[in-house]
Amino acid sequence: MINEDDKFLITIIGTDKIGIVAKITAVLAECKVNIEDIKQSVMQDFFVMFMLAEKSNSPLSFKEIKDALTKTGQEMSMEIWVQKKQIFDKMHTI
Amino acid sequence: MNFFNEDSILETINMIKMHNLDIRTVTLALSLRDCCDVDIRCVGEKIHEKIIKYAKNLKSYADEIEEEYSIPIVNKRIAVTPVSLIGESCKNPDYVYLAKILDKSADEVGIDFIGGFGALVEKGMTKGDELLINSIPEALAQTNKVCSSINLASSKAGINMNAVNKMSDIVKQTAEKTSAQDGIGAAKLVCFCNAPGDNPFMAGAFHGVGEPECALNIGVSGPGVVRAAVEEMPKTADLGEVANTIKKVAYKITTTGELIGRELSEKLSVPFGVIDLSLAPTPAIGDSVAGIFKAMGLEHAGAHGTTAALAMLNDAVKKGGIMASSYVGGLSGAFIPVSEDAEMIDAASKGHLTFDKLEAMTSVCSVGLDMIAIPGDTPKETIAGIIADEMAIGMINKKTTAVRVIPVPGKTVGQTAVYGGLLGEAPIMPVNTLSSSTFVKRGGRIPAPIHSLNN
Predict the structure, then answer these.
(1) Among A17, B194, B360, B417, which one has the highest count of C-beta atoms within 10 angstroms of its own C-beta?
(2) Domain A4-91 belongs to what topology?
(3) What is this structure's pTM?
């Protein structure tokens, strides 16, 4: 059974370029993190991608996964936010 | 599944990244009542052992959660039972020693501040209270992380003017003993009326006597987020709409704080206490309560209308917070510390914001005269008058009020006291030079007010 605590949201913001999805998903596959949902759009001239990920099968800690994603984000000059999902659930629902 | 609400996600990220939303403090409140002993060394050992036992993981767990949610947890702190109670049974009391033990313990667990080096003396002092109060200047000069607060008045007991006089002298001595750092000792010393026993914010945090063995209290902040939300509104939006916007923002901030608090309390196996939603400014640009007044449409903090704006802000913050959590406590509202708020510093430096206007504002803000630098040669009787006035506002209005003024040694109006970090810097503000001496020296206790005929 999937624990809600294992779900997290990845937000990637920056200028559009080739290979963003490929590189991020490669890191996630390597970390054995499952992608549950993915959405991308262009907002105010910025490329923005949201991914809902789930790490119950990953041998890595949250921090290790986050560090790997942050490093990849920096290499692509993209801003990347990795946050547990509950912060959005709590903040925006009554 | 339709999880992605892009606007909500980006709003959360913006609140953190652009508008300084943070968890200002996670404060572990800890009873030291089982640390009493006849020998002061035994008391010290018990206190040290207990703090290490409960707080050894506070910093590392808080850091972990900060990582998981990408929201800064700025301070990790501890609040303890008023220490006057703990050292009182000793045959050889030495409160400076206990302050050093608190400081050492705080260092060992890697926290920022430890509060509770204080006493509750609104109706009178015991021997232990008096010894602790006398030790404050030395204790704060010899420690870095210890904060002290003394409750001098309440709506039920009145104002203990003997204690007010005593504390005015202690405030001056504390500033003088730390004169090399512009009297920073006094920045860690608060005089209260109606002090809450579950406040997580320093320098006034302590663990009240009616509180449990331990609890985790959370302080969330976010004046920058409120300012940005009000700024986005049209200038013609009426004040009811502005209040509503503030409530919504306060709701969002509070739910985030409660999430973090509950997660950390579970990790620490410590019960969740309260969430204190206080708009606590920092010297960072934009993270300012005075900036909210500007966004509301006042030219600057101090303009006529500032008290009304603050009253509305303070109330809307509480209403939004209450909706978000059943356990809102502590001070909850808006802080107006001068030195810690870039726009307040600016308003005070330009003479827009006077001491008297600040006093009026404290009748509707969540605390009181906070982080105000005054001339070093201000007579102690004048400081006693300042404290008495502020205690009176709290006593009559059944609210918490506090005084944290710093008589900066060797400095006067036109100069600035510099503390750095979250404490910021403060222009020395002029105080009224008329004498309060004969009045305050009468001493005794100003009786508690009548609680009916509320006109």
Answers:
(1) B417
(2) Alpha-Beta Plaits (3.30.70)
(3) 0.94
